[in-house]
Amino acid sequence: QDEPIEESYSTSVSGMVNLLLLEAKLIENLNSYADELERKLNILKSTSLNALDSYVLGQHLHKHKNQHGASEWFAESSNGNKTLEESHSTSVSGMVKLILLEAKLIENLNRYTDELKRKLDILKRVVPRLRAESDKGMTQKEDYISNPLNAFSLIRRMQEDWIDWKVFIEEPVGWSHIFYLAQYKSELPSPTDLREACEAIQRLKYYSIAVPILDHALMMGNQAMKTQVFNLRSYVHNMIRNEPNLKPVAKENIASYSLGCRGQFVPQSNLHCEYKMKTSPFLRLAPLKMEIVLLNPFIVVFHDALSPQEIDYLQNLARPLLKRTTVHVNGKYVSRRVRTSKGAWLERDLNNLTRRIERRVVDMTELSMQGSEAYNIMNYGLGGHYAAHYDFFNTTKQQTSETGDRIATVLFYLSDVEQGGATVFPNLKLAVSPERGMALFWYNLLDNGTGDTRTLHGGCPVLVGSKWVMTLWIHERAQLFTRPCLSRCAN
Ligand SMILES: O=C(O)CCC(=O)C(=O)O
Ligand SMILES: [Fe+2]
Hints:
Layout: H1 13-45, H2 50-65, H3 70-76, H4 92-139, H5 141-146, H6 148-170, H7 175-184, H8 191-203, H9 211-219, H10 227-241, H11 256-261, E1 273-276, H12 282-285, E2 288-294, E3 299-303, H13 308-318, E4 323-324, E5 327-329, E6 332-334, E7 342-346, H14 352-365, E8 375-379, E9 386-389, H15 398-401, E10 406-413, E11 419-420, E12 423-425, E13 430-432, E14 439-443, E15 457-459, E16 462-464, E17 468-475
Antiparallel strand pairs: 1-2, 2-3, 3-14, 4-7, 5-6, 7-8, 8-17, 9-15, 10-14, 10-17, 11-16, 12-13, 12-15
Helix pairs in contact: 1-4, 1-6, 4-7, 8-10, 9-10
């Protein structure tokens, strides 16, 4: 059939020459696409993270022109307003998850690199071949086209191949990797996490850590472009520089608490150790190793109060339940900077182990456990601490109306701590360093039932290590007959 044909290249040699010129342009375009892929690959292979900064900056400028980038979509699932409860830095146990996640994300990036590389390899093999054929034509255009095989080949490749190349370029590299990342977005640390981590680093000033060490910690990783981090960093540095403790000052001006944290209290050495074996018949078989720390107020420690197996078991029970710890403010429990850790409650009659520990506490303290609280297991994280506080409530309100106030505290240490993390009683010039298995016991109330303000105490920031403790607050009411209000309360 003889249908009209409007534009057709093959009907004239000069039309075909135009086609050759166009082909050369398209090959150059394909080549610059290959260059772009290669730039991306080089960043992934690069050992310096600054390369990523300039790329991200370039993309950022580009994005303003092109509003519908994948990164825009990704930003929508931002987790900026995550609650403190899910914070990462407040427990070492929580941060372990982050390491595992990081390994997965690096693998994802690696798979993306492989995919980019596969695409680039194809281009690297093909572009030179395309160029060679095109060059032949370009040097002797009319001669080239005069050969019918060449003419046919030119028409064929220009008609079919570039459609395929378009598909090839359009096929996105990395969508699956973006989805992979997006799926973990909510598990990544939030800006709040970063702020808390900076505050934690700042708390380490108690230990007169040199500024360059903090500098190193804050600048590791890819942060040159992240102005937010940069501001926080100078904020932290200013705080440290303004911190009088870093300058040589008279010893008596240094707060008693941070002195204690640094282990600079003079040890109290006139007291003694004994085997506690009389509270119950069981203790004759397995006496408790008791060390009297202070007589007034009465503070003792029990060494090896928990076995390593018992501790492992308790930690495994608590680990999946850990939640950001709170403090009691105006009748509400809220997360605050003064207490940065994660904790979990375990009922005292949860299982054989918790019941056995309860009986042991009775042997240790000679107090009744009725009306006392559940075990509170805590794990401290980066610079984690519990600022100086009283354990007693000293109110007639809800917490104390039925069971009475917290007469005494048993603080079990479930871990050693490499550096920092002592429990300090600033008013008593007493610091207790954590020792796995040890239990610290003290009375919070005076004989007349009011709070003993000498028991002000806190957990110092952890410098190196994962500090685990288990607290049991023993309540007053059940002690009515075993530890009655003494004569002093009549006065
Ligand atoms: O972690 C510490 O050393 C102190 C903990 C404490 O005071 C508490 O839990 O009430
Ligand atoms: Fe306490």
